Input
Amino acid sequence: MKTILEGVRVIELTEALAGPYCAMLLGDFGADVIKVERPGTGDQSRGWGPPFVGGESAYFLATNRNKRSIALNYDDSHDLEILLQLIASSDVFLSNQPSLASLQKRGLDPQTLRAKYPRLIYCSITGYGFTGPNAGRPGYDILAQAETGLMSFTGEPEGGPMRYPIAIADMTCGMYAAMGILGALFAREKTGEGQFLDMSLFDSQLTWLANAGSSYLNANSEPRRWGNAHPNIVPYQVFRGSDRKYFVVAVGTERLWRKFVEVLEAHATFGSDDRFASNPLRIEHRAELVAILQGRFDAEARDAWLEKFTRAGIPAAPINTTAEALHDAQALARGLIVQIEHPALGEVRSIANPVRFSDMPVSYRLPPPILGEHTEEILRGLGISV
Output
């Protein structure tokens, strides 16, 4: 079966999440991804747990399918030469070393490698990039969430700053990096030249300000914490039914508001209240309306309300647990859980790639590798006897 990136080789010299996630996405598209790891320890995320599965970190298993692993100590001149041979055979080199001086010492910096291999696409993923006052500083997801302002307006209104529990800066940077690499591969088809991509967690996370950033830049309006509510739409938040189960409802237009009033049989009450006649007025009187709505929702169980909203075409959903989400009928129907046979663990599962190509679908060929599992195979491919 043909894939989008068939024949493309990626050398991944990254750890943790952003780089491995980027490389996995490219592997899903069909690239031959060779993950270079230090002997004995490998990717630092191999030690991130519990939970562990047969000695393998569940965290590592999440972002390393469709890769082959080679163990190289690139501080050793012999192993460094092997790494350079791998890069010479590749289309993409992915690195997350923040120290440009360290890369230059080994001859792995962008300027040196691109001079040797003009068609090479060199993608660096770091905390802050190679320019600016913070260049070279180590970067972690929580730092990016903090410094880009996101944590300042995440959390309950009366609470403190809140970190999003998934490493969104890492994942966002990994996705942007994959997007950039795909663009560079496309450009190379026209120019014959590679590119250097200077990707950073800080840059990528800053894009999450989106409409909040626009509100500040264009209206000098600083976002505040709203918890589960929406700053610009009411009602658009969490409620609970009489059974104490939570759900969300999103009434984003005046047409939906009229339907919402109809479902709640509230024409004679809050449906005709001038305070709630438009979304700007509902925002102005948010607290009063939310209290009225919660009082109404206390009359019936969550699923009864969800059934009514579904029939009326009003966007609403239960707040699922992780288990409920992964077993949801929609997730199963869309094939969103990948199952691959692992040489040591048996069947391992992960979240599928969400991109759906009509003619060349994503491919799940290899399980997350054991450290150094493919070293001999890769060396033989370079013509090195083992």
